[in-house]
Amino acid sequence: PRCLDDETIAGSAAFRSLGRLPVLCYFNKRNGNALMRCAQPMVGATGRRSAPDECLIKAARETAGEARILVIFDARSSLAAGGNKLMGKGSESSAIYESTKTYFMEIANIHAMRTSVDALLDLCSSGSEDRWLSKLETTGWLRHVRMVMSAASVVARKMTLGNGTIVVHCSDGWDRTTQLTSLAQVMIDKYFRTIDGFIVLIEKEWLSFGHRFRDRVGTAERPNERSPVFLQFLDCVWQIMHQFPSAFEFNESLLVRIADHHQSGWFGTFLFNDEHDRKLCQTSELTTSLWSHIEACRQEFLNPQFDP
Question: Could you please report the per-residue DSSP string of 154-192?
């Protein structure tokens, strides 16, 4: 909100994990609802408070009208958020952040997703069809996809039918948070269901907000950081496409192409963990963008059923 000064903004950043303070990522012009994203607050087991952070949340709530409630969607389980309190972090309390309501969305962490996708890949490469559907269920992958999609649909519903500001976060604000804000925007805004809009969405929510692509693809230095967060997002979009086949300008070939090349290293778009590292290594000057390739092959990705 424009009413906040630099000191308040800096104070809020200092109170949020890794300095990721609440910022606007989407504004619904139809009803004035704002979608914000951030990381968890550093409340800890002792219930620390931050006047600047409380001021920012209050200002964000009042931009939609003083009578409205600010809704916080915490992508984690309440148990996981409670565990983070023991490490000096945690979640917002409505007793401190006035006129707010927090919902825990029960989405598993990156380690559970890694275990699930590894089991899925083992199943797909086994070559056995014996009790395949039962074994697929055992991997937990479809259950995780359902939880992410269900949470995103709740966010989208609040954005379209509710009347207030919405804040989404998980632990550090670059994995589950990004999944939910991205999927919600795909559900809400038809622009993000076009080829150009989908590219803008990935650039905005994933690349500019610092999703750690290098770590999530997997490195020898940090093997435990590997997790299929972005791949899972693409799977969720694929699931929506099959429910609403005429709502997307692009077909599933675009999702497959992005899925292949977000970890192929052929293009510079998804190299490194953040914009700082990409600029430092001059990826825009020294590598080719995946989006250039997609534009050159645009006809391959058009959906003939698209009804704008």
Answer: HHHHHHHHS-S-EEEE-SSSSSHHHHHHHHHHHHH-GGG
What are the pLDDT digits (tens) for 244-291?
999 999 999 999 999 999 999 999 999 999 999 999 999 999 999 999
Question: Can you read off the two tokens belonging to residue 23?
Answer: 């910022």
Is 281 a residue of the active site? no
Q: Locate 294 and state its tokens.
A: 């997609």
Annotated catalytic residue, options 25, 55, 170, 236: 170
User: Which one-letter amino acid corresponds to residue 250?
Assistant: F
Overall pTM surpassing 0.90 (yes/no): yes
Stated as kind and residue range, the H or E segment containing 151 is helix 141-161
Rounded CA-CA distance 186/152 in Å is 10
Q: Report yes or no: 34 and 96 within 8 Å, Cβ to Cβ.
A: no
CA–CA dist 159, 31 (Å, integer): 8
Residues 6+ apart with CB under 8 A from 4: 55, 56, 59
Distance separating alpha carbons of residues 133 and 143, to the nearest angstrom: 13
Q: Provide the greatest CA pair distance for the chain.
A: 63
* 127 has pLDDT over 90: no
Query: Cα–Cα distances in Å, from 3 out to 8, 41, 63, 89?
Result: 10, 21, 10, 27
Least Cα distance to 182 among 223, 234, 143, 220 occurs for 234
Instruction: Band the pLDDT of 67: cuts 50, 70, 90.
Output: low
